[in-house]
Design goal:
Blueprint: E1 4-12, E2 21-28, E3 33-38, H1 44-51, H2 54-57, E4 62-69, E5 72-73, H3 79-85, E6 86-89, H4 93-96, H5 104-115, H6 119-132, H7 148-160, E7 166-170, H8 178-193, E8 197-201, H9 205-211, E9 214-219, E10 222-228, H10 229-233, H11 247-257, H12 269-280
Parallel strand pairs: 3-8, 3-9, 6-7, 7-8
Antiparallel strand pairs: 1-2, 1-4, 4-5, 9-10
Helix pairs in contact: 5-6, 5-7
The structure holds adenosine-5'-triphosphate.
């Protein structure tokens, strides 16, 4: 699957009046890493639910506008088929663990089993993914007895083992320590280099700045900004959408206020160092 296109999409959950997605128009292109940011309750998870077909198949409610997958309407697609092309890593890893498998190995193998992949291939793919996520030591543990961070890695493993074209990932590092978060981001980056489309919801602005190509800012169910990570995250108006800019940009604003403006507003620590050195050598 190459593109997902949303045209004037509105959605309200059942028994609610106010749309949670309000006139959303956006196109997601193959091989691009999208970051979706915005304050709590702005509609990010609801957007993920729509992209994965959970709206309107699981969540009912009022949906209007067009949702097109390679030009085909969402309503005309089989939700099971969609789940093969689009992997969804939920915000809450406790939701994602099936609860029917006794070991992490079996849990990660479950989706491939359901697709009828041969046992030999399942074993090879699961071993590779467990190694990639550095959870081989958990292979024989019961998934229900893991910590939140361990479950988050298992949930992530059970999606990437399926090798979907598009990954919709909702706060994959909320339960992880800084080293675990860095690891997950570097894996997501590797997946992007394999030409996967990544749509990531995340509150960690420094990570969004370091990895995303395009950043979408949501507020009150609308996409209020859509542009390159540099253009969106360096914009001082970002705070108006309830989002704290990355630390590098904040430092540049402070320097400017102190009468020491940099040539540009950096969004990563590396770029910030480069601009400070340039200013220093002037
Ligand atoms: N199942 C539901 N039924 C009714 N309203 C819902 C449901 N799920 C979410 N909402 C409402 O929709 C709005 C958007 O919620 P959503 O979870 O999409 O926001 P979010 O941007 O992902 O928030 P967060 O950053 O806290 O995860 C909120 O007002 C929320 O209360």
């Amino acid at each position: 699957m190459d593109t997902i296109e949303l045209k004037h999409v509105r959605y309200a959950y059942p028994l609610t009046q106010k749309p949670v997605l309000d006139d959303i128009s956006v196109t997601f292109e193959k091989g691009t890493f999208y970051g979706v940011i915005g304050e709590n309750g702005s509609g990010k998870t609801t957007l993920c639910n729509l992209l994965r077909g959970l709206i309107p198949n699981f969540y009912k409610g009022e949906l209007s506008g067009d949702v097109l997958f390679d030009g085909v309407h969402l309503q005309d697609l089989d939700v099971d088929q969609l789940s093969v092309s689009i992997g969804y890593v939920f915000q809450n890893p406790f939701t994602q663990i099936s609860g029917v498998k006794k070991t992490v190995f079996e849990e990660v193998a479950l989706g491939l089993e359901n697709l009828g992949v041969s046992p030999q291939e399942i074993i090879e793919r699961v071993i590779r993914v467990l190694e990639l996520l550095e959870i081989t030591h958990l292979a024989q543990k019961n998934p229900t007895e893991l910590s939140g961070g361990q479950r988050q890695r298992v949930a992530f493993a059970s999606i990437i083992v399926m090798d979907p074209d598009i990954l919709v990932i909702d706060e994959p590092t909320s339960q992880l320590d800084p080293a675990g978060s860095m690891k997950v981001f570097s894996i997501i980056d590797q997946l992007k280099k394999q030409n996967k489309t990544i749509i990531l919801v995340e509150h960690k602005m420094n990570m969004i700045a370091a990895y995303c190509d395009i950043v979408l800012v949501m507020r009150d169910g609308k996409i209020v900004k859509n542009g390159t990570a540099q253009a969106v995250l360096s914009d001082a108006a970002l705070a108006e959408a309830g989002v704290q800019p990355p630390e590098a940009a904040l430092l540049a604003y402070d320097l400017k206020a102190a009468g020491i403006p940099l040539e540009d507003i950096p969004i990563t620590a590396g770029e910030c160092c480069r601009l400070i050195r340039k200013r220093w050598e002037r």
